[in-house]
Amino acid sequence: MIHEVNGLDVHILEAGFESPGRPLALLLHGFPDLAYGWRHLIPILADAGYHVVAPDQRGFGRTTGWAEGYDAQLGPFSLLNMARDVLALVSALGHRRTAMLVGHDLASPVAAYCALARPDVFPSLVLMSAPFPGPPALPFGTAGSEAPAARPNTENQKLAAALTTLDPPREYYQQYLSTRRANEDMWHPPQGLHAFLRAFFYVKSGDWPGNTPHSLKVRTAEEFAKMPTYYVMDLGKTMPETVAPFAPSVAEILACKWLTEPELGVYTQEYDRTGFQGALQAYRVLSDPELNAELRLFSGKTIDVPSLFIGGKSDWGTYAAPGTLDVMRTKATTRMSGIELIDGAGHWIQQERPQQLGALLLSFAKEAVGADHTGDSGLGDRQPG
């Protein structure tokens, strides 16, 4: 436990801390994950010479200090405050900067804003599973127009309305996860929490044969409906009801080496204790224009540190926001070294294919900060305690 970190007591998993002066590799998880999700990758990076730290993010696991409940203030879960969490953790650990910052899923935009706001502390960036489209833009060239007042962003509302007109009516998963009922639905599902989590992890993995992702042409209801129902749900169904028909067989569970039953038991135990609401708050932030208004401070700013995107070939997350992958590569970043899609991996890359992921991360780190990444690059600055 690391105490007094931007108002939190942060629970971390770490390795490589025995030797002083090691460069810091910071691993940020998404939903519904935990620091534990990096368990296969942590020793790989530690063996390569890093001080590896994976925190339970604000709202998750054993990290405390965040307000519970659907009616809690959402400001603390804003992207910039969660970036402050990361900055404060680096400082609390006695490091001046990271040598490796990795953000997966919901932590991808958090990591992106870390690099956008403080490139001196986060001099390289790896985004996983969720492409970053850049900060929201301020209206440009409106001084001469007769009606300069900016209209509120209604794209999400228009898409939600259009999805309900399909046959059958549909609902985007982020909209569902933002509702008051979602926490209770997932915390106490009919099939039990363990069985729900097993089905959810399975259906979003490379093990489920139904995952054949591809680019979507435009942001329309008809295009979105091409995604599996765990992304674009049947309207009125809960997430546990949505994934239940695709639950793996006993044989498939036994064959799953990346998430054994005892390992899944860790997730079951933690979410049974905390529920999901803290983890769901970030989805509500993403859909609230007021909470994202502060991001316009970075309007027009690009990520200028060396960056890399890693996805799973069987993960729809790469394409869930049409066009974002190209925008990230051509506009939001200026030094993106590549887009790597790992064969056989779905959404849970760090669990499904840790060896391949580790090799990509170490290669990128070598490219980004020089061959002697544990030497005199300065990225291993750790102050005496």
What low-confidence regions span 5 or more consecutive residues with pLDDT below 50?
371-380
The proportion of strand residues reads: 5-15%
The Cα radius of gyration reads: 20 Å
- Category from helices, strands and their pairing: alpha/beta
Helix content, binned percent: 25-40%
| Mean pLDDT score | 93
The count of domains is 2
User: Number of DSSP strands?
Assistant: 11
What is the CATH architecture annotation of the largest domain? 3-Layer(aba) Sandwich
Largest sheet: 7 strands, mixed
CATH overall fold name of the largest domain: Rossmann fold
Order of strands, main sheet, comes to 3-5-4-6-7-10-11
- Label the overall shape: globular
Level-1 CATH class name of the largest domain:
Alpha Beta
Q: What is the count of DSSP helices, taking H or I runs of 4+ residues?
A: 16
Plain-language structure description:
- By secondary structure, this protein is α/β, with parallel strands linked by helices.
- The protein has two domains: 2-136 and 293-369, Alpha/Beta hydrolase fold, catalytic domain (Rossmann fold, 3-Layer(aba) Sandwich), CATH 3.40.50; 155-282, no CATH class.
- It has 16 helices and eleven strands.
- α2 packs across α3 and α7 (193-203) crosses α11 (261-274).
- The model is unreliable at 371-380 (pLDDT under 50).
